[in-house]
Design goal:
With about 100 residues, the protein is an alpha/beta fold. It has one domain (about 15-95): Response regulator (Rossmann fold, 3-Layer(aba) Sandwich). The protein is built from three helices and five strands. Helix 1 links the parallel strand 1 and strand 2 (about 40-45).
Length: about 100
């Protein structure tokens, strides 16, 4: 595994997993549009990430970290989530995104 900071959304195309930090939320829509349709798992701790079209959103709840899953985003990225993963999710969404 290699972790690196990307200068532009286009650099994410060869990646398998893209984490978008909350500090980059101003470029969220642009980044999600740039990788739309790519077999790429998008993950973020930005507010309302799955509503914006991201696949997995990391959220705080009940004093711990939890995650939300956007099944439509997974489908668009041609990815499948196991039923075990989906059962652990705090929230399941079919949001298409605002981009």
């Amino acid at each position: 595994m290699a972790v690196r900071r990307l200068a532009s959304a286009d650099e994410a195309r060869p990646c398998q997993v893209l984490f978008i930090a909350e500090s980059e939320s101003r470029r969220l829509a642009l980044t999600l549009r740039a990788v739309a349709g790519q077999p790429l798992l998008t993950v973020s701790d930005a507010d309302a990430f799955i509503d914006a079209g991201g696949a997995i959103g990391i959220v705080r709840g009940d004093g711990r970290l939890q995650f939300e899953v956007n099944r439509a985003a997974l489908d668009q990225a041609q990815l499948k989530a196991s039923s075990n993963l989906l059962q652990l999710a705090r929230n399941l969404s079919e949001a298409k995104g605002r981009n």
